[in-house]
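R.M. (postdoc): so does anyone remember the format we settled on? I'll just put the structure tokens first.
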């Protein structure tokens, strides 16, 4: 994935770099398998950019590394890949004979591992969190009627609970870590870009 400003001069520089890469490596971009995703570009400028690149125009949201990229806030339906993946895992496990401890460990390690990948990038809507809670609750208790409210068991084992992370609290903590990295100017490309383009010397 390559990014640039949404103007013809910037795209021209990008294409020249790809041309230089091709001349050196003998590896060329396959334009029929490449797409361009844009946001906020007027039609006249967009036509010139598409003509210069010969790429087809893709539609957002698009999945990249398993998560959706969009030019605006994601809708509840955009989180369907996350919910569907958790439901798929549960459907495979439900047919097996597992102890309560085994079910609990699957939720803690596997399902919450899937969630973590999304939680560190997006603030999950309440409707999505409710769907995930419902799937995990029904899986753990093997019933739609749980003997204990889900929020009550989402506490550390030291507090005599089951040690399952509360999704909303976990989500806020992971997003706060992103803000902390921006504040301390961590040496990563994404943090440098945010500080240069959006923060511009101001305080988070």
């Amino acid at each position: 994935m390559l990014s640039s400003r949404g103007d013809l001069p910037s795209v021209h520089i990008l294409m020249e770099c790809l041309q230089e890469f091709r001349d050196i490596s003998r590896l060329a971009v396959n334009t029929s398998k490449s797409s361009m995703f844009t946001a906020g570009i007027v039609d006249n400028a967009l036509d010139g950019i598409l003509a210069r690149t010969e790429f087809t125009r893709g539609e957002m949201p698009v999945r990249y590394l398993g998560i959706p990229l969009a030019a605006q806030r994601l809708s509840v339906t955009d989180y369907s890949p996350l919910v569907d993946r958790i439901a798929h895992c549960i459907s495979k496990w439900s047919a097996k004979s597992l102890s309560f401890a085994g079910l609990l460990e699957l939720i803690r390690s596997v399902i919450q591992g899937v969630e973590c990948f999304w939680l560190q990038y997006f603030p999950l809507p309440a409707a999505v969190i409710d769907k995930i809670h419902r799937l995990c609750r029904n899986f753990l208790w093997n019933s739609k009627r749980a003997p204990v409210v889900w929020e009550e068991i989402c506490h550390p084992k030291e507090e005599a609970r089951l040690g399952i992370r509360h999704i909303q609290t976990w989500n806020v903590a992971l997003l706060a870590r992103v803000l902390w990295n921006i504040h301390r100017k961590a040496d990563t490309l994404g943090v440098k870009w945010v500080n240069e383009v959006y923060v511009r010397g101001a305080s988070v």
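R.M.: ...and that's the designed sequence above, right after the tokens. Also worth knowing: The radius of gyration is 22 Å. The CA atoms of residues 149 and 193 lie 43 Å apart.
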